Amino acid sequence: MVPKPVIVTAPPPPVSSPPNPLLKTAVSTVKTEEKPQTTTLPPPSTTTPKTYPVPSIKTTPQQRLELKRKTNSWAPALMLNALDNIINNFIDPPLKPSVDPRHVLSQNFAPVDELPPTECQIVQGALPPCLDGAYIRNGPNPQFLPRGPYHLFDGDGMLHALRISQGKATLCSRYVKTYKYTMENDAGFPLIPNVFSGFNSLVASAARGSLTAARVATGQFNPSNGIGLANTSLAFFGNRLFALGESDLPYTVNVTRNGDVETIGRYDFNGKLTFSMTAHPKIDPDTGECFAFRYGPVPPFLTYFRFDPNGNKYDDVPIFSMTSPSFLHDFAITKNYAVFCDIQLGMNPLDMIAGGSPVDSVASKVPRIGIIPRDAKDESKMKWFDVPGFNVIHAINAWEEDGGRTVVLVAPNILSVEHALERMELVHAMVEKVKIDLETGIVTRQPVSARNLDFAVINPAFVGKKNRFVYAAVGDPMPKISGVVKLDVSKANERRDCTVGCRMFGEGCYGGEPFFVAKEEGGEEDDGYLVTYVHDERKGESTFLVMDTKSPELDVVAEVKLPRRVPYGFHGLFVKESDLRKAVSW
C-alpha cells in the first residue's frame, strides 16, 4: 500500500509578532453581500498558511522539481513579505484618503468574487434584437485586499459581461488572467507594488524598489512578461477582442456561447508590439483600420502606430517634438489625421524616485494639440498648436471641415486638473468644441455644456466623421455617475447649453459610462439605445439599463436585474453577435 503524503505547514506566528506574510487574503474576505458596507481589513487569524505535500514514492520527477522550487522560494517569500508588511504599516502607511483602501474600496467600489455565467431576470420591457451579442464592462477589482496604499487605478482588471441572446441575458464576471494576476494568484499574496499609490516618499520609493528587485532576483516574478492590470477598457479589431490597460500589451479574451469569459493571453501582434499600448485605440468604421499610441516617462514620450483591418501592425512613429512626458490617456482621429493633446498632467521619473506621484500637474506648462497625418511614416508633418487651459483626458470625437483645412475636436476640458488623480471629487469637466485652422494656426473654442460631464460616447459609426450627438455621464461628483445626457454639438454656435436629452438614475443610484448601440446599420445617427450598469446603493442591487436615445428623457425600454452587484468601473464595449463569432471558433 502506498503511504499517503504528509502535509507540512508553517507554524503560526506568536501573538506579539507581525502577521504571517504568507497568509493569503483573497477578495472573498471583502464584504461582497448585496448591501456592501465599508471595507475593513480582516484579522490574520482568519486565514491559513499555504501547505506543501511531502513527495510520496509515486511522485514524478516534474512534481519533485516543482516541490523543490516552491520549497526553495518559501523562505525568501516569508522574509520579503515581512518587509512588505513593515513598509505598509510603518514606512508608508495609507494616510491620505485617495490611497486608503478603507476609503477607496468602500460601498460599491468594493471588489467581488468571480461569477460563472448566471441567468438574469428581465424586470421591465424586453431586450431589443439589436442587442444580441455581449455588453462587457472593464474595471479595477483587486485580487487581494490591499495591506498598504491603494489607488482606484491599481486594481486587477475584471470583465463583467452580459451575454444577450434571443431576449435572454446571462451575467458573468471574470478576472483578466494577466501575468501579474496569475503569478500572484499562484503565490497567494501580492508581488508587484501599486504604481499609482506605492511611491509616496523617497524612503517608500527606495524600500519598495528594493523589495521589487529582491522578488525579481529570487524568481518570484519576471517583469519582462508584463506587469499590467488590463483594467481599463476593451476593443475589437482584427477579429480579436482585447482587454486593455495602458501599462502593458493587450490581452485577448473571448466570450463563449454560454456567456463565460476566457483569457487567451498577452498579445504582441507577431512580435511587432514590444511595449505598452493605449487603452483607447480608435477604429475607423469604414476601413476597419485601428490607430493607437503609447506614452512614457522617457524619450520618445509619445509613439504613434496603426494596424491594418486584419490587425497587422505598421512600424512605430516616434514623436520627439513632444518634449516632456505627458499623461496622454486618449486621442482622436479624423479621416486624414490623428489628434493628440499634450496636457498639464505630466510624468517625471525623477520626482517619482524622490517620492512624488507618478503623474502630477505642471502649472507652468501650456497645453497643446498636436496633429499628424494618420498614415505618417515619421513626424515631419506633425503640427502643434497652443491651447491654454485645455486639459483633455478623454476625447469624444474629431473631424475635418472646410475641405480639410479645419480640424474640429470635441472633448471634456478638465478644470482644476491638479485634482485629477488625488481628489477626483473636486474635478469638473466641461465639454468644449475646439476648431483649429491648420493653415493660419488660429484656434477657436466653444462651450458645449457647463455640466460636470465625462465618459462620453457617440455612435461608433461616426468615429472620425462630423457628428451631432454625444452621450455623456453626469459626475455627482466623479467618479460616481448619477445620470446621462444627450448633447447636440451643432448647437454650440448658438452659445447655449447643448443638452437635448437627460435621464437621472434616481436617489442613491449610480451608473457607469454609457455605450451607444445602433438599431440598425446605416440608420439615423441617434436611432439606437444607450446601455449601462446601474447600482442602487440603498437596496444593494445592480441592474442593466437599456435607454431609447431618440426620446427626450432617454426612456428606459428594458431593465435587467443582475444576480449580484456589479462594482463601479471604467469603460465598456458592446460586441455584436457576428463579431463574437469571428473572435472565437464555436
What does this structure look like?
Helix 1 (61-91) runs antiparallel to helix 4 (202-217). With 586 residues, this protein is mainly beta. The chain has a single domain (78-583), classed as TolB, C-terminal domain (Neuraminidase, 6 Propeller). 12% of the residues lie in helices and 32% in strands. It contains 6 helices and 35 strands. The strands form 9 sheets. Strands 4, 30, 31, 32, 33 and 34 form a 6-stranded antiparallel beta sheet that branches.
Give a nutshell description of this structure.
The protein is 12% helix and 32% strand.
Q: From the alpha-carbon coordinates, what is the Rg to the nearest angstrom?
A: 24 Å
Shape: globular
Question: How widely separated are the two ends?
Answer: 46 Å
User: Considering DSSP H and I runs of 4 or more, what fraction of the residues is helical?
Assistant: 10-25%
Mean pLDDT: 88
* Count of extended strands: 35
Number of domains: 1
The third-level CATH topology is Neuraminidase
Please work out how many helical segments DSSP would assign. 6
What is the CATH superfamily label?
Answer: TolB, C-terminal domain
Pick out the low-confidence regions.
1-57
Which class do the helix and strand fractions yield? mainly beta
CATH class: Mainly Beta
What portion of the residues fall into strands of 2 or more residues? 25-35%
Biggest β-sheet strands, sense, barrel: 6 strands, antiparallel
The CATH architecture designation is 6 Propeller
